[in-house]
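Reviewers of the previous submission asked for a worked example of the structure-prediction workflow described in the proposal, so we include one complete record here. The input consisted solely of the amino acid sequence. No template or homolog information was supplied to the procedure at any stage.
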Amino acid sequence: MSSPDVTMLEHSNIAQALPEMAAQKPFQPAVIFPAGASRGGQARFIQYTFRQLDQLCDRTAHALTDYGIHKGMRVLLLVRPGVDLIGVTFALFKMGAVPVIIDPGMGRRAFLRCVQDAQPGAFIGVPAAHLLRLFFPFAFRSVRRAVTVGRPAFWNAPALETLMPAHSQPFPAVPMPPDTETAVAFTSGGTGIPKGVIFRQEMFQALLGLLRDEIGIQPGEVDLPGLYIFALFGPALGVTEVFPDMDPTRPAKVDPASLVQSIQTHGVTYSFGSPVIWRRVAAYCLENGVRLPSLRRIFMSGAPVPPPLIQDYTRILEEGEVYTPYGATEALPLTMMSGAEILAETAALSASGGGMCVGRPVRGVAVRVIRITDEPIPLWDEGLVLPQGQVGEIVAKGPIVTREYLNRPRENALSKIREGDAVWHRMGDLGYFDEQGRLWFCGRKTHRLHTRQGLMLPVPCEAIFNQHPAVHRTALVGVGPSGEQTPVLVVEPKPGFFPRSRLALRTFSEELLALGASHEVTRPIRQVLFYSRGFPVDVRHNAKIDRLKLAQWAAKRLKRIRG
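From that input alone, the workflow returned the following structure tokens.
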């Protein structure tokens, strides 16, 4: 990969890249999305070329402008992934309106709170989404314009297709100063309340530059977006977006055969996705002797990536490589690491409790590790920075790092540190730097344990127990008051290995405790509980373990056992 400086693209509106691609590569596919299957079970697809997509965006922009949606207006989008999502989003970008993206799987109460935070002036959604507006009008009271994508249209929400003009005259992209609010994307709320992350034009431009120059994504490539937000960057990069046939709220349930068919049919060259997706794809490929020669890069993000999963892909890819970018909605990616380096240099240390190595910071981004505190830090001080090898909170600043949350002054105070005109974002993650300048991830700050033996961190400990052949995954949680927490290992066994008898329970527990006793970081763990269902996970990736829920469950379970 080349590593030039992350620079701003020449245009002041990222949507301007779409008509340029339409002029340069008019017949190259821009968007391909599933359209059911034939009677024989063969998948069907519909595609739009760059010229067709640009014309669709122009018509949509004219329609929405004539309907009263304007520059600077926040527009809540609840549109299924596919050409409608891309078409409406880039139309809003051209207009200078602000798309608001909220994860529909986060739960009704959290979703409605996000809508209230965003205060959208317009709402564009599928018919089912408009039922929310009718049943919960208090959350949508700021909405003055509503549009239905699909049928039937709802009262006071005409169908988008009825607003479309017959012509496809170009819609000139509105000039956007660098600090202009361009989009709002809400976090999933996996470790707290969902927060609206404000993306400004300069951040989008810098992120596009990083994807192009640092990561090496070039026009003509083909992307399979396992994480749909990355599909919004494809048209601006000249990339063909092949939408997978999957429920975006349940990536863990994806049909791996369908993904493999899409990769092979369209020659997918790269893909971003949760490790839970790639675990399912790996199992399918290895079981059926399938290889994926077109894939040059697989980016696994959203949760720690176990080295054995990376090892699986050395047998599936021919000339491709796995990468494990680290970041968050507020800043992605901050670091990058290849699977080859993980397997050769860091996997053994991870297996012995060193944490998960996530690589070196990308060019143009500053990453530091500072002392751990739950209090606000108003102003930056170099005295906050910890020495190499010491665990602390990860912070970052740079052109791809967002500067504020939407209408959340308390969360801004807790997550942002001012340094003149610059802003450091506190990731809420704990980690350390090694002597080679690589960052190691040790877990969320809210998941740390304060025991009588001292600070304990989940990710380094769990990696040790996850090596047991009957373990699918584990979660280290704390039970009791801070400073006196009892470390409890909650185990999700592999299918068929849940201990059903007292003897099996004792044997399994003793094997795990013996494994833990062989490492200093896990020696204090003396309590093991087995979880009979799948762990609760986040709605976006289906991979981040909800350790706070498991801690509550463990506390109740121990109370029953001891009572």
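Residues 557 and 563 are 10 Å apart (CA to CA). We consider this example representative of the routine output the project will generate in years two and three.
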